[in-house]
Design a protein that fits this description.
With about 210 residues, the chain is an alpha/beta fold. It has 2 domains: about 90 residues, no CATH class; about 80 residues, Winged helix-like DNA-binding domain superfamily/Winged helix DNA-binding domain (Arc Repressor Mutant, subunit A), CATH 1.10.10. It is about 45% helix and about 15% strand. It is built from 7 helices and 7 strands, in the order αββααααβββββαα. The strands form 2 sheets. It has a 5-stranded mixed beta sheet with strand order 2-1-6-5-7, covered by helices on one side. A two-stranded antiparallel sheet has the order 3-4. The relative contact order is 0.15.
């Protein structure tokens, strides 16, 4: 399978950077479609799955877990644990950061959310569970979903099962989002520095 046309669109032409505030784009025959957030029906299906997963695992459905799950379902920016903590704290002032971290770890183990990691960035959480790929901004850390069906059929490398067992994959395209591309270079560097500082502070809190 040849991936050159997709890379040419995503990395060289950088058409995706023209969107001022995209949540998800779809690549098909060179066309880009701005997709909407999760529909009300899809949210209800996910909430039903939330209750079923807790019931099957014998875990109680607490107010904190319900609040965190509803918070992440309403977002398309792949939030960090800190962002979700701040969002939930307005509703539940008594909730702690550690509680939110534990809840997200539970959701990940139950298959209710996906944990997305990129080098040099804090872990992000994705409510979208079907296979998709990401555009990652090197300046602000923003993550944008990419729907590209032809990337879902990449042939896996031949690796000895004793060394490593591949279970899944996603493709990450790194570049600059529309907002950062329009900033002067000096502002881009300052934004990158602030992002690195925030990540460092977040890692210290975890310790």
């Amino acid at each position: 399978m040849r991936l050159e046309p997709f890379y040419r669109c995503a990395l060289i032409d950088r058409h995706w950077a023209l969107w001022p505030n995209p949540t998800c784009i779809s690549l098909s025959s060179g066309t880009y479609t701005h997709l909407r957030q999760m529909s009300r029906t899809d949210k209800q299906i996910r909430i039903d799955r939330f209750f079923a997963a807790h019931r099957d695992s014998g875990l109680p459905v607490t107010t904190q877990r319900r609040a965190v799950f509803e918070a992440i379902l309403g977002r398309t920016d792949h939030p960090t644990a800190e962002q979700l903590y701040r969002a939930v704290r307005g509703q539940l002032p008594q909730v702690s950061r550690m509680t939110v971290h534990r809840i997200l770890a539970t959701f990940t183990s139950l298959g209710l959310v996906a944990r997305t990691c990129h080098p040099g960035s804090a872990a992000r959480f994705d409510p979208k569970l079907d296979q998709h790929h990401h555009l990652v901004c090197l300046d602000c850390g923003r993550i944008i979903d990419v729907e590209a069906p032809h990337l879902n059929h990449v042939r896996w490398p031949q690796i000895k099962s004793d060394d490593f067992q591949i279970q899944d994959y996603t493709v990450h395209f790194r570049g600059r989002c529309g907002r950062c591309s329009q900033k002067p270079l000096s502002r881009q560097r300052r934004a990158h520095g602030r992002r690195e500082k925030n990540i460092s502070q977040l890692n210290k809190r975890k310790l």
